[in-house]
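2024-03-11 09:14:02 INFO worker-7 job=invfold-0412 stage=load source=structure_tokens
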């Protein structure tokens, strides 16, 4: 498990942009029981989260259509919540970072780590915007 002082600034990047932290399996369950669309970002300390995923997610929120609920879990820190979120992302294998869009609790769009690595934040944002335009 990562020390809090390491993950705090990475968490703040999303929470300062309107994301709710999910820290327990109950938090994940409650988030996905809400009607409408819910975006869950599996945050990470890795470089592709800092350079690609978090900036791409934040950029995507400037779209006219966006998810109703914005949530995040932190891999290697929010262990219980991350495991619960990943269970909801099946059949996709666990990856960090990753981004999942749910509609009425059902997974409708997934961005896995291999879709994030080597792609700039603009491409990730464009991918999410297309999903928002379709599902939100």
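2024-03-11 09:14:09 INFO worker-7 stage=emit residues=136
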């Amino acid at each position: 498990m990562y020390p809090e002082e390491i993950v705090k600034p990475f968490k703040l990047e999303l929470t300062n942009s309107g994301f709710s932290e999910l820290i327990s399996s109950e938090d994940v369950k409650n988030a996905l029981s809400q009607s409408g669309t819910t975006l869950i970002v599996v945050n990470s300390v890795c470089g592709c989260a800092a350079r690609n995923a978090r900036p791409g997610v934040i950029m995507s929120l400037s779209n006219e259509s966006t998810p109703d609920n914005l949530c995040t879990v932190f891999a290697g820190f929010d262990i219980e919540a991350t495991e619960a979120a990943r269970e909801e992302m099946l059949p996709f294998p666990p990856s960090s970072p990753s981004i999942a869009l749910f509609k009425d609790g059902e997974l409708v769009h997934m961005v896995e780590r291999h879709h994030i690595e080597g792609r700039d934040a603009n491409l990730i944002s464009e991918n999410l915007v297309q999903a928002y335009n379709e599902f939100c």
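2024-03-11 09:14:09 INFO worker-7 stage=report msg="The radius of gyration is 13 Å."
2024-03-11 09:14:10 INFO worker-7 job finished
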